[in-house]
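Sample 3 of the quickstart, ligand threonylcarbamoyladenylate:
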Amino acid sequence: MKTRIYQADEAIQPCGALLRAGELVCFPTETVYGLGANALDPAAVAKIFRVKNRPADNPLIAHICDPQMLEQTADSISPEMRKLAEKFWPGPLTIILPRGKKIPAIVSAGLSTVAVRCPEHPVALALIRAAGVPVVAPSANLSGRPSPTCLEHCLNDLTGKVAAIIDGGPCAIGLESTVVAPLGGKKVRILRPGGITPSMLEEAGFEAELDPAILKPVEKGQVVSSPGMLHRHYAPMAPMTIVTGDPEAVCAAIQKKLGPEVWVLAFDEYLDRFPQAVSFGSEKDPLSQSNALFSALRRFDTLPCKQIYAMYPAGDGVGLAVRNRLLRAASFQMISAERL
Ligand code: TXA
Ligand code: MG
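Result:
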């Protein structure tokens, strides 16, 4: 299949028509690029699972552009969840809601719920409006690869496999949206951390609890709240070990392990301590870390690299999401600087 690359300003009408015709379109959002299909067309949705090689039990997020489209997507929404949506949409928040009658079962992998998000990106919103239907979109990577945060990542994974890719430049956040499930009233459980942080939810009057699977591996037989938690997440080809502790001690410990095929994921403040290092943004700026992580992970696979050591982010604000993705990429391999 020939994949057409569109610049954002000329993409909206033709790509909206492609979506309506059951084709797949890769588009930018403020979190990561999405691989879009018409959510009301089960055959189009099935293409997403095929193209990504995505396990059939991992449900998709339906993207909407306005409150009217929410009514086509979910049913019996509680007043509190409506308030949550009003407060944070458009934005990097996905809410698990009762699945609407028009949404085919394949979207939710058979669950009675549906994940819904209204993205805060002018191209994404205009595209959904032009399509005139809710658009399901997982991250636009092949299953098992890091989510794409720029055109180049999408081209690497999906050229020849989708009808169109829209270039919207680099994504503002660079990690996927926060996913929350209602627990009754103003209580929610965070299933996946992202750009909307626990303290933002609390400041808006919601009570947010963290799912235990966010910072710990899921144990065999454990019941999970989101199928995505069970699936293998991206790990670079070389094993990655996270080193914790005071940054100076971490640098000193890693320096003792350096060799020709050893690379370091280092904060900018410490890049010059290592002959072979990839930037992990600034130690003091969690957003710069979330911007850097997925590009860095993709880069390691292009390098002659047999072992990666990673510095560990502080975890405040969007840093919780950075920790969550880094831990999964390292298969939870973590050691303190004194013990390395
Ligand atoms: O930022 C994002 O959310 C991006 C952009 C494109 O919007 N999309 C994205 O989709 O990250 P995906 O498919 O890579 O991740 C969706 C996550 C998965 O972990 C999935 O298991 C979970 O949401 N999920 C979807 N529907 C669910 C449901 N009904 N109940 C529980 N978890 C659900
Ligand atoms: Mg994904």
